[in-house]
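At this stage, I put together one protein's amino acid sequence and its backbone structure tokens, which the following lines show:
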Amino acid sequence: MTSKKTGYLLGAVAGAGVMAAAVAGAGMQLPSAHAQLPGGLIKASTAPIFAPPPGAPMSFADIFDRVSPAVVSINVTSRVDPAAMRQIPGLPFVLPGPRGGAPGGEDGEDGDQGGRTEKGQPRLPTQQSSGSGFFISADGYIVTNNHVVENAESIKVVLKDETELDAEIVGRDEATDLAVIKIKGGRGGPFPFVNFENAGKPRVGDWVITVGNPFGLGGTATAGIVSAYGRDIGETFVDYIQIDAPINRGNSGGPTFDVYGRVIGVNTAIFSPSGGSVGIGFAIPSDVAETVTKQLINGGKIERGYIGATIQNFTAEMAEAQGLEGQKGAIVADISAGGPSARAGVQVGDVVVAVNGATVKSSSDLTRQVARVRAGENLRLDVIRDGKKRTVDVRSGVRPSEKELAANDNSGGPGGRPGMPGAAPAAKAPVLGMSLSPLDEPARNRLNLPAEVRGALVDSVEQSSDAGTKGLRRGDVITLVNGRAVAAPAEFAAVVDAAKKAGRTSVLIGVYRNGRTAFLPIKVSG
């Protein structure tokens, strides 16, 4: 294989005052940076030869020398579908590692070209790819990203001194994109390792250092600052730390350190409108990473709470349409038949505003709060229904795996992929740019709709209208408007007229498509 050379941090000088703030913390006496070695601490390097501005770090070299022995390169041979997407769907965020990468990509090189299995099925081509990871114990446990190793047929770990060791997967959690691997047989140990930091964390503006294996170059360090906490980039269970330090392909699974050499996060994604790094990266916070990795080591399986409901963000425009200006939460778009929410009496259109007394700010926030509850425990949901607050008690179930959820996801909500058969045109006056007709039995049979679906059928949509720009199309069924069930076009028109007279600027409609309901706020004309 290609030999790896240890990277060097040639120097870094930044604005004054930041380092002093980071070191000051809140008056806590914190430990010095180190990768723990059975024989003692790694000796610090010599002092730099220049004097930086007051408050700026002298150099990151000491920290890098102390922690880099615990950081490893991970070389993976895997079989990957070249058509798979590396990018998080619908967002300009990229997982900077081998998941979904076609052979010969930036972090991989061609392997075999597939062929067929013994059963005659097409065999996916192999990919040689690389990522990063770090030891969290002397006996060889390594944390990395799930997408680095999820399709691995073989894993080789390269230490700082270029020693190569075989490793195997201990456990993976697709929902948080975390995985634990271990050196086979404990050979080569004991190993230097680093610790997660959960008691104190850098503030926005404090220095951090990322170490990893970008582009297969080997141990490389970059420096930057924490620029935000609680970033939601489309992944369900993680409030990411935004790290404004260069993170590139191959950095996936590497650690982000504070100025004391403690792990505050696991590098996992980059903001990338073009596919390359623009200097904005995202890390899984250490408290999430530590909790998940401990569970993976102890049992290999992660269980999360589940209420059996599909939810959406309750946006400001939705709130205005419902006369709930300023209200945040998550709106229930669909309910799984026979699931916890269905048994408890949760209804489509309910706006969940709190769970067990904790405010719900968004759909992601609701999902994370539910996930923290164990199966069988009670969840007290505060919901708004028909403009009134009420409480619904739901007994949590166990969240299915991501693959099971994906198998049940038709991905056919408004704005989803095409495929719904067309409906017969109707010569009716458009309402909000849509021509509607009753959902009669011939139309129901033509569209293969379940018997329980009731509403007004969309026959055509003016593309310049707000409904058109938001993705409504011929064949959609409007089932709800401002919380009221719709059984005919006239009922829809009446609610829209009432909203106009009440001075509303929009109405909130529930749209059924391909087995799913989604809510959209649609502007009304004056």
